[in-house]
Amino acid sequence: MKNVKHLRCVKCNKTFSVEPGIYTCKECGPKGILDVVYDYEYIASRINKKILSESKVNSMWRYMDFLPVQPDGPKPPLRVGWTPLYRVDRLGQQFGLANLYLKDDGLNPTASLKDRPSAIAVAKALEEGYDTVACSSTGNAASSLAGNAAAAGLKSVIFVPGRAPQGKVAQLKIFGAIVISVQGSYQETFELSAHAIEKFGWYNRNAAINPYLVEGKKTVSLEIAEQLNWEMPDWVAVSVGDGCTVAGVWKGFKDLYEVGFISKIPKIISVQAEGCYPINRAFHLNKEFEPMEENTIADSIAVGVPRNPDKALCAIRETKGIAVNVSDEEILEAMRNIGNYAGVFGEPAGVTAFAGIKKAVAEGLVDPKETIVCCITGNGLKDVANGIRAAGEPIKISPSLEELEKVLEKI
Ligand SMILES: *Cc1c(COP(=O)(O)O)cnc(C)c1O
Ligand SMILES: [Zn+2]
Predict the structure, then answer these.
(1) Which of 70, 135, 261, 366 is the most exposed place for a label (fewest CB within 10 A)?
(2) Best probe residue, ligand 1, of 135, 214, 242, 313 (max atoms within 8 Å of C-beta)
């Protein structure tokens, strides 16, 4: 990997060479999250916008030069990434937004953005010769890992908290994972998985602990930039749980800026649920985060003890971004809005960013004429119960045309 210089600790700046088995800083422990540092001159000597535009690789692997994996090493075979970026004028007009785009990452193979980091995890596990991968997750990290592992012929062991929606658990079982449903909080689930991974020597796909995962997540930004023909939006809105996704989004834009592909980095809108917003609270109070309860229907971002607060806070601060909290009602409304006016079905955490955009505009934090990209991070079919909650039940009638006419008159 000539494109990678080293790994650097975000706490103490100590550097480490890239070696199998290194996850976090040896001095700082689990809080010493490592960041992959690239040789941008080398990358710029290998790739340019023209070469990219001629690439026939319609997946995240088109950005191989920006990724910390062996260029000709083994990769999981599912097609991850290169999801559509829709200009959604009908949705925008409803809310006075002049330039709105949706990046539909629910169209990934296991239906969430998490396929991007999971594909990297499986590639690294294959590269390093592991036969089993493991993680703890509120759902999508797990289902994407299980799917990509199944496709690549690796075993997966998954720890989920008891509250994970059935759609996600069904995915895990279908992909042949060993699924351990821990009757406790996400924090307790995470800790158990960490101990088990250490004890049994599995490949660790826990986000934040594993420095390569953010690199997978960043491919969403590389795509947004290329799909917008390198004209950067003013804002990119992301729903935030652990904080790894927002950190990845930022890293992607920074990489492109460093190699000279783009001339500005979009501002980040970090969106969390009113029932669980430790990162946004830390941003507003300008303090370290403090744990919070996990009270929201948006299960994928119900993270009371975020694993990657430092990188997430950096992403918001350094881009001069903002942080907004939205209620569960507003999340359900965003689900309806995006479905009704854009034909896209997102899970609650998948549409939370849009609820945040509406609120940021209403509060005057964002100018509705600006260009805004909203990341739809997960598909609504993973959580149909909340889909029905958002949109309601169908009209029930007997098989009679008269009755049909009556109900249609009332609509
Ligand atoms: C994981 C996830 C997020 C948030 O990512 P973090 O890295 O936990 O901040 C948002 N939406 C969906 C659908 C997710 O699965
Ligand atoms: Zn350190």
Answers:
(1) 70
(2) 242
Query: Which ligand is closest to the CA of 164, given by its number?
Result: 1
Q: Which atom of ligand 1 is nearest to the CA of 208?
A: 7
Question: Which atom of ligand 1 lies closest to the CA of 347?
Answer: 13
Q: What is the pTM of this model?
A: 0.96
User: Would you give the end-to-end CA distance of the chain in angstroms?
Assistant: 61
CATH of domain 85-111+213-391: 3.40.50.1100
The residues facing 85 across adjacent strands are 103
Query: What angle, rounded to 10 degrees, do the helices at 244-258 and 309-318 form?
Result: 50
Per-residue model confidence as pLDDT tens for the chain (411 residues): 899 999 999 889 999 998 887 888 999 988 888 999 999 999 999 999 999 999 999 999 999 999 999 999 999 999 999 999 999 999 999 999 999 999 999 999 999 999 999 999 999 999 999 999 999 886 899 999 999 999 999 999 999 887 777 888 899 999 999 999 888 877 788 889 989 999 999 999 986 678 999 999 999 999 999 999 999 999 999 999 999 999 999 999 999 999 999 999 999 999 999 999 999 999 999 999 999 999 999 989 999 989 889 899 999 999 999 999 999 999 999 999 999 999 999 999 999 999 999 999 999 999 999 999 999 999 999 999 999 999 999 999 999 999 999 999 988
Tell me the best of 140, 213, 249 to mutate to test the pocket of ligand 1, counting ligand atoms within 8 Å of each CB and taking the most: 140
Domain residue ranges of the chain, discontinuous segments joined by +? 85-111+213-391
Distance between CA atoms of residues 370 and 124, nearest Å = 39
In sequence order, the 6+-apart residues with CB closer than 8 A to the CB of 227 are: 85
How far does the centroid of ligand 1 lie from the alpha carbon of residue 152, in Å?
Answer: 24
What phi and psi values does residue 283 have, to the nearest 5 degrees? Answer: -65, -45
Cα distance between residue 159 and residue 5, in whole Å: 33
List residues near ligand 1 (CB under 6 A): 112, 114, 140, 207, 239-246, 300-301, 303, 347, 349-350, 377-378
